[in-house]
Amino acid sequence: DVVMTQSPLSLPVTLGQPASISCRSSQSLVHSNGNTYLNWFRQKPGQSPRRLIYRVSYRDSGVPDRFSGSGSGTNFTLKISRVEAEDVGVYYCMQSTHWPPFTFGPGTKVDIK
Amino acid sequence: QVQLVESGGGVVQPGTSLRLSCAASGLTLSSQNIHWVRQAPGKGLEWVAFIYYDAGDKQFTDPAKGRFTISRDNSKNTVYLQVDSLRVEDTAVYYCARDDGSFADLWGQGTLVIVSS
Fold first, then answer.
1. pLDDT computed for residue B65 by the predictor
2. I need a labelling partner for B41 at 20 to 30 A (CA). Which of A21, A92, B111, B115 fits?
3. Quick one: CA torsion of B17, B108, B116, B40, rounded to 10 degrees?
4. Predicted confidence band of residue B6 (pLDDT cuts 50, 70, 90)
5. pLDDT exceeding 90 applies to what percent of chain B?
6. Dmax over Cα atoms in chain B, in whole Å?
7. Residues in chain B closer than 8 A to A102 (CB atoms)
8. Kind of pairing, strands A10-13 and A108-112?
9. Which of A2, A46, A40, A35 is CA-nearest to residue A21?
10. Interface of chain A against chain B, CB under 8 Å?
C-alpha cells in the first residue's frame, strides 16, 4: 500500500500570509498512463471533504486561484498564497494512482494564529 | 442541484448489520463509479469501498473484506454499503463520493454510524 505523509500536521497561519503543506508518498505516484493522481482535499469543521486540487496541480471548479498544487514523483506541495479566514480546516493529500487501496495522508490542521 | 445523500446510519449494537444508502439527485448514478469513505470521530479519512457504474468490479480496503458488501440499484439511482458483524471500531461517519477519474469530485454529507452496547 502507498503510505502518504504530510507535514506539518498543525499549521497556525496569519491572515494574508502564505502557507504551505508538504505531502510525500512512499512510492512514485506516476501512473503507467503518464498522469500523476495526487489530490488535495479540505474538510471544514462539520462538513464533508471537498476536493481542491486534482492530478497535482489542477484546481477544481470554484477553487480560488490563491490555492496551487505542485510536485512530482513522491513529493508534493499545496500552497495558499494569502490565507483567508475561510481557509481554516483540515487538509488531506491522497493518492489515486496505485489502488486498491486509495490512501489519504493524516491531515494538516490549518487555523488562524 | 446535483447531490449525493447518504442515509441508514444510527446507533447499533456490536455484531449486528446495517445497510447504508447513497442516493443521487440531479444526476444519474447508473453511469457513475462510487466510493465509500469513512471517518472515525476525530480521525482522518479512510477509503472503504468502490463500485463501478455497472457493478462489474468492486474493490475494498483489506479490513473491509468479508464484512462489507457494496452494491447498487441503478433503477433506484442508489448505491448501498452493507456492513455485517459491526464492531465498535466501525463507528464513523460514512460518506459516499462520485469518482471522476481523480478519485472524487462530489461528496455526500455523510451518515453517522455508532456501534455501542
1. 93
2. A21
3. 120
4. very high
5. 94
6. 40
7. 35, 47, 50, 103
8. parallel
9. A40
10. 37, 39, 41, 43, 48-51, 54-55, 58, 60, 90, 92, 94, 96, 99-107
